[in-house]
Amino acid sequence: MTTRRQLLTAIGMVGGSAALYQAMTTMGHASETQYKGSPDLSGARAGASVLVLGLGAALWWKLRQQARELESPAGSSGLVEGTKVAISARLGARITKMNVREGDPVKAADVVAELEEMDPENWEKRCADLADALRKAVS
User: Quick one: the chain helix, strand, coil %, rounded to 5?
Assistant: First the structure.
């Protein structure tokens, strides 16, 4: 039997955070709190301040790393000139080959980049497993 935690984990892994939030909302786990008072913050357990300090330091370190990554080049740059450019991604994948260089002219339907192959059978199986788990949870 699949537990609720396992189901939500599977939804999050396959569908992402939006699907997970939708599932949690549907199950009643993401509703607004009805508590109106202010929280009682007195009488913290021994060691709680050390834990909070450690979490704060870890967060600071992670944010510092991210700031360094943002300062470095993103690995892509370019110039798009034209009156209208429609670019969209239908799925997330890595670029394995660029077929044009900056400044090269392109026409509609030209292959600009090639993406890594994704195994559609694997995605179909993962989606089918998720659907089965959802059916079991609902029934």
Answer: 50, 5, 45
Question: The whole model's pTM is what?
Answer: 0.26
Distances (CA, A) of 106 to 76, 82, 113, 131: 18, 11, 12, 42
Distance CA 134, CA 128 (A): 10
- The secondary element (H helix, E strand) that includes residue 105 is none
For 31-85, write each residue's pLDDT tens digit. 777 888 887 777 767 777 777 888 888 999 998 888 887 777 666 666 766 666 5
Give me the helix-helix angle, 120-138 and 4-27, nearest 10°. Answer: 70
